[in-house]
Amino acid sequence: xxSNRFVGKALALILAAELLVLAYLIIIPIVFPIRYSKxxxxxxxxxxxxxxxxxxxxxxxxxxxxxxVSHKGACGLMQLMPSTYEWLCSIDNEDIxxxxxxxxxxKYGVYLLSVLYKRYGSWDIALCAYNAGMGNVDKWLEDGxxxxxxxxxxxxxxxxxxxxxxxKTLSQxxx
Length: 175
Fold this sequence. Notes:
By secondary structure, the chain is mainly alpha-helical. Helix content is 71%, strand content 0%. It has two domains: 1-31; 35-174, Orthogonal Bundle (Lysozyme), CATH 1.10.530.10. The protein contains eight helices and no strands. Helix 6 crosses helix 7 (134-141). The longest helix has 30 residues, at 2-31.
C-alpha cells in the first residue's frame, strides 16, 4: 500500500515538473514574447538601457503590436507620442520617418528612456516619466518625496515591475 502511494506521488511530481517545463517552453514565450531582438539588442547597447526594461515597456505599452495607437494618440510598439518622437528626432538631428516602423519606434523609445534615466537617475522614476511626462514627475519630486499622483502611473509602474522580473529571468537564461 505504501509503495502505491509513493508511486502515485512520484508520478504526480513528474507530471507537475513536465507541466512546468511545458509552461516554460510553450506558454511563457507566448505570454512574454521576445521579438525584435536584433533591434532591442542594438539600442540597448547604444543607449545603455537594459533589454529587460525595453521588452517590458513594449509588452506593457503595446503588447508587441507595432501598429498600436492609444486613445491619447501614442503610436507603435513603445507608444511614442508624435510630438515626443519629433522632439527626439530634432535632438538627434534626424529626419522624421515612420513612427510605426519597429526600428524607428524602438530606437526613439529607448532613446527617451535613456534621457529620462540620465535626468532622474532611477529606472522607476524614469518609467513614471515615460508614462506621465517629465512635468508631472518633476512636480512629484519637488518636496523631496516621490508621491505618484496618478493611479494610471502607479498601475503602469506595477505592471512594468512585474513584467521586468519575467524578462530579466528570461534574458539570464538565454545567456
